[in-house]
Each structure stands twice: as C-alpha cells, then as structure tokens.
C-alpha cells in the first residue's frame, strides 16, 4: 500500500502527490500527519530545511476541511509574497483532484481587487502575508469566524519584519477554539515566544537535533581579504561553470550592487529584495525557477523558505547578522534529499563567526582555497569542450551554409580550427586571469597586514576598476530619481553612453556615480549651467569630497528612517528594514 494512504491521506490526494514524485513521506510528514489529522492539538513542528514541511501541514489540512462549504476554514500566514505564492501553488497541486477545494494567495504589492474577488467567490484556504491580510480584514471583506486551523510558517521571520501586532490583530478575528500549527527549521527565542503566546499546550515534534542544519549540505569557507572578496567570488563562480546558486548579501543595497556588478561582468544574475516592485520580484523568481538566471542575489528575508529545485550552491557573500539565518540560507540547497554546497567568504576577523556557526549547525566546515587563475581557466576550457561535444546540431538548418563555411576554413588545419573555436569564448577568461594573484589569506598571517594593504570597497575596486572616477551629483532619491532614472538623466544631459558609467550609489539628496576616466571631462562640461526643478545641478569629483561622505551617510540613514514606509515597507521585506526598526530582538547574535 502507498505509505501516504497508510498515514490516512485519501487516494485523490495521494494520486496528485505521486505525480509530483512524492513516493514516501519524509520524516516530518510521517510524524506530523497522524498527529495533525487528529485535529485536536496545537502543534509545533521543527524540521530541517527542505524536508517537506509544506506538505506536512498541507496534506492534513486537505483531509480536515469541508470543501462542500465555501467559507475560510484554514489560514496560513507567512512572511513574504514569494513564499505565499509558493505555498498556495503547492497546496493547489496537492488538491488537484479535489474539485471544490479553493486556495487564495493574499499578499501585498498585487492587485487587491483580484484577491477580493477570489475571496467573494468562496475559499476554504487562505495563504497570506500579514500586511495585506489585515488590510482585507479592515475592509470587512473576509469572515474568519469559521476558521479551524491557523498555520504559522517561518514565524520568527514574520516577527523580525515587525509583523507581531498585525498577527495579533489577524488572529483576534479567528475563533478561540481554532488550532494553531507552527512550522520552522530553527527554534530561536522568538519561535519559543510565539508558541507560548499563541498556543495552548502544543504537541511539539523535533526532527533530528534542534536547530541543526540539513545533513546533505557540505559547508565550506574561504578566507580572503575584504578587498578581494568580489574577485574571489568571481573565481569560485568561474570555476563552477554549471553553478546554479543563490548568493546572500546582508542588505538590499549590497544585494543590488553585487547583482548589477555581476550583470556588467557578463553573468546571468539578478537581484531579489524588498525594494523591487512586485512585478520585478515575480519576474526574477520566474527567470530563476526556469533557470534562465544562474545566480540569484538575495536578502535573507526575500529568500526565506524559497524552494527551487537543484540549487547547487548557496554563497554567503556576507555572513548573516543572526546565526539562525545561516541555517535558513544554506537550506535553499540540498532540498528533497539532494546534496549541495553552502560556502562563505570571510576575512580573518570573521573566522570566529565560522566557529560559532559550526556549533549551531552541528557540522564542521571545510576550509577551501580560492582557485588559482590557471585552474579557473582550465575548468572553463573543459566546460567549453563539453558544451561543444553535447551541442545538438540542427542538420537541416546548418546544411545550406556548410559549403561556404567549409570554404572559409579550407586553409586551416583541423587543429587550427579547434584552437580558434576554443579561443572564441576562452580568451575572456585567459585575459582576465593572466597574472591573476593568489587571493587566499593564510589564517596564521597577522591581522595588521590586512590593514596595511590599504582600504577598498567591497568590490576591491581600487585594484580592479581604477579606470573609473567617482563623481558626486547633488540629485538623489528625494528628487524621485531611481538608479535607472539618474543613469538616463546623466547620459541625456552629457551625451555620454551608459556604458561609460559604472556603479551608481543613489542617496537621499545626492548620488555618487562612476564614470570612465575618458568621459569625465564630458560630464563636467555637460553639467555646466544645468538646472533641475529650479535648482542648479552640481557635479564634483567625489574623491575631493571624501571627508564628507561618512557624515552624509549618517544623514542619509536618518532620512530613510523617517520616510514613513509603514506597512508597505514591512510587507516588502528586505534586510534593510531591520536596521531602522529600532526593535529589540532576542536572537542569538555574534
Ligand atoms: P521545507 O518547508 O521543509 O523547507 P518544502 O515543503 O518547501 O520544505 O519542500 C521541499 C521540497 O521537497 C519541495 O520541492 C517538495 O516538493 C519536496 N517534497 C516534499 N515532500 C516530499 C516527499 N514526500 N517526497 C519527495 N519530495 C518531497
Ligand atoms: Mg517551508
């Protein structure tokens, strides 16, 4: 007999999940399903990332609800819209053969009237992010008086994002006697607090050792100087031509910058964070899921709980602020029984953090070496050769051109042709890695030496991009410019090409931008006597303003703090909010 049937799941559902490739229950499903089917307890389920917690609550819900009734009976709350969509789609797949089952995804940034229409038509399962849910409750557009089950998925993250009050308000509209189920991969103090606050005598199930990471993940770390981080990261990516990875940064700004730099450097990469519009986020996720993106650069919040098949590497470009987040990050790989690598780029000072994470994750980390230039070049060359071997040739289409092609190569030997084809893609790497230095730092090296090598930003820019000059302009986000707008504005005003512009650092009342040295004069002359909204536009060399920058940065922060993001900002998520929330949290910090 199918083991899911033995657990008490009906044939219609088992048939649907069999099609998804679920042959037997995962440990958390095996243990949780019978308890939840009894429907008589509050419940806390702790299980490692990627072990099927969605089905562990989704399958029992489908068994317990009465689909002949059209009112909401289950409410699932989660922190981000990506997760909200993922959970609702997963449940819809399990319910494929239950024609009356209706699931609605309620999340911010999307058209509310569509969501209201779906609710009016009748739904039994509501999957929601707290902000939008509360909005809909406020409009008296939903009736939760018959809700029997509430599921809190990734509850600690919802609290981190400042959703506590919203959750209280939402839950106050549900009946006293409903059952609350909580699922998480880690049990930080917040989760413990939620369990206490929202549950009575919950049945607690912990799979494996509490808070430990997934066993199928190999953890590695690379010790590099801060200024070598970006080139080291590139080398690691270049030496894994088949990489399909998620790169974690600490802030939205860092996420955006790394993504932009990678794109400029020719990688299939894009950013996922809370400052993007919903359409942008959806597009990025879609491209990543269908593998047209190779690298997804994300904040902790944006990627929490995300389930994408066959992620090969999680890259901690910056270590997370909270240790638990390392577990959530690395858990984006090695899902559903597969294996994966989680690697971290650290400097000497951060080695202690690695030791602390090792303790939490319960596994020792392997020290890896940033590959040498020649090794990367060799990897790329053989990846290219493999590609050539595997490429499918469309005989019909290429045939008409063959005689001409043959003719052009008539003079060349087979060896020459092979060399030329290989060089076509390969030269880029050869050039880049010629004379490439060793980027590894010997941990026994003294700390002083790092400092004595001079300061640089996170791209190691002073070494790698000295052909740019950093300029200041007195226009910024308060003038309603986005990074793209200001790029366009500069190009239009000065008639230089966008390609001549490097990194753009948009601030409140001003912006720093990089310009190729050759175009700097053109920028200065282009901005002479230019007004914007009645104000005279000023461009200066940022190097000469260096002393001012630190102070302005602070001013900028308090500006952001005061920009009244309110609920929308929270709903958007993203690491930045926390820095400005001023809330005290109890997570284990370094
Ligand atoms: P978690 O919430 O525990 O991190 P998910 O619920 O997102 O994990 O599931 C991780 C992946 O495992 C998903 O792709 C899901 O389809 C798959 N999965 C879940 N249960 C099973 C099962 N019993 N057999 C095979 N694959 C499963
Ligand atoms: Mg999950």
Short characterization:
The protein is α/β, with parallel strands linked by helices and 590 residues long. It binds adenosine-5'-diphosphate (ADP) and magnesium ion.
Keywords:
590 residues, alpha/beta, Rossmann fold, 20 strands, binds adenosine-5'-diphosphate, binds magnesium ion
Task: Describe it.
The chain has 590 residues and is an alpha/beta fold. It folds into 4 domains: 3-206, 3-Layer(aba) Sandwich (Rossmann fold), CATH 3.40.50.300; 217-370, Rossmann fold; 374-433, no CATH class; 468-588, Alpha-Beta Plaits, CATH 3.30.70.330. The chain has 27 helices and 20 strands. Residues 20-22, 25-26, 29, 47, 49-55, 307, 335-336 line the site of adenosine-5'-diphosphate. Magnesium ion is lined by residues 53-54, 153, 305.
């Amino acid at each position: 007999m199918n083991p899911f049937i033995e657990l008490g799941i009906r044939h219609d559902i088992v048939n649907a999940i069999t099609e998804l490739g679920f042959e037997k229950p995962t440990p958390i499903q095996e243990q949780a399903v019978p308890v939840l089917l009894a429907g008589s307890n509050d419940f806390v389920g702790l299980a490692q990332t990627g072990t099927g917690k969605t089905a562990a609550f989704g399958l029992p819900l489908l068994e317990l609800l009465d689909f002949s009734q059209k009112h909401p009976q289950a409410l699932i709350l989660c922190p981000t819209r990506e997760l909200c969509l993922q959970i609702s789609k997963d449940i819809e797949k399990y319910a494929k053969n239950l024609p009356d089952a209706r699931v609605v995804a309620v999340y911010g940034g999307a058209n509310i009237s569509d969501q209201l229409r779906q609710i009016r038509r009748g739904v039994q399962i509501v999957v929601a992010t707290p902000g939008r849910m509360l909005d809909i409750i406020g409009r008296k557009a939903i009736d939760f008086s018959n809700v029997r089950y509430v599921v809190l998925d990734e509850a600690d993250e919802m609290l981190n994002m400042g959703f506590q009050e919203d959750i209280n308000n939402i839950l106050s509209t549900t009946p006293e006697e409903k059952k609350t189920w909580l699922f998480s991969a880690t049990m930080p103090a917040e989760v413990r607090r939620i369990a206490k606050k929202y549950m009575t005598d919950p049945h607690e199930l912990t799979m494996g050792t509490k808070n430990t990471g997934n066993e199928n993940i190999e953890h590695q770390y690379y010790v590099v100087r801060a200024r070598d981080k970006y080139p080291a990261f590139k080398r690691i990516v270049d030496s894994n031509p088949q990489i399909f990875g998620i790169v974690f940064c600490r802030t939205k700004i860092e996420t955006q910058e790394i993504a932009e730099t990678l794109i400029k450097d020719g990688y299939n990469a894009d950013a996922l964070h809370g400052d993007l519009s919903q359409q942008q986020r959806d597009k990025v996720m879609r491209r990543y899921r269908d593998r047209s993106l190779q690298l997804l650069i994300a904040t902790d919040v944006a990627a929490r709980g995300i389930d994408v098949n066959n992620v090969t590497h999680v890259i901690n470009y910056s270590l997370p602020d909270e240790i638990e987040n390392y577990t959530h990050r690395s858990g984006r790989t090695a899902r559903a029984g597969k294996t994966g690598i989680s690697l971290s780029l650290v400097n000497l000072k951060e080695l202690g953090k690695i030791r602390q994470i090792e303790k939490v994750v319960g596994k020792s980390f392997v020290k890896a070496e940033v590959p040498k230039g020649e090794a990367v070049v060799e990897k790329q060359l053989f990846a290219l050769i493999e590609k050539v071997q595997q490429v499918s040739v469309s005989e019909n289409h290429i045939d008409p051109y063959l005689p001409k092609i043959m003719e052009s190569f008539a003079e060349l030997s087979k060896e020459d042709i092979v060399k030329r084809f290989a060089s076509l893609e390969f030269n880029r790497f050869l050039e880049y890695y010629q004379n490439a230095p060793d980027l590894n730092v010997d941990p026994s090296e003294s700390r002083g030496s790092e400092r004595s090598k001079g300061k640089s930003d996170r791209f190691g820019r002073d070494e790698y991009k000295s052909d740019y000059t950093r300029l200041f302009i007195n226009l910024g986000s308060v003038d309603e410019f986005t990074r793209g707008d200001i790029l366009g504005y500069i190009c239009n005003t000065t008639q230089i090409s966008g390609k001549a512009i490097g990194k753009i650092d948009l601030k409140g009342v001003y912006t720093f931008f990089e310009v190729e040295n050759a175009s700097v004069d053109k920028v200065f002359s282009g901005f002479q006597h230019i007004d914007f909204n009645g104000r005279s536009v000023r461009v200066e060399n940022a190097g000469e303003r260096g002393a001012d920058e630190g102070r302005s940065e602070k001013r900028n922060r308090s500006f952001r703090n005061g920009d009244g993001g309110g609920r929308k900002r929270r709903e958007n998520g993203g690491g930045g909010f926390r820095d400005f929330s001023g809330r005290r949290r109890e997570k284990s910090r370094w």
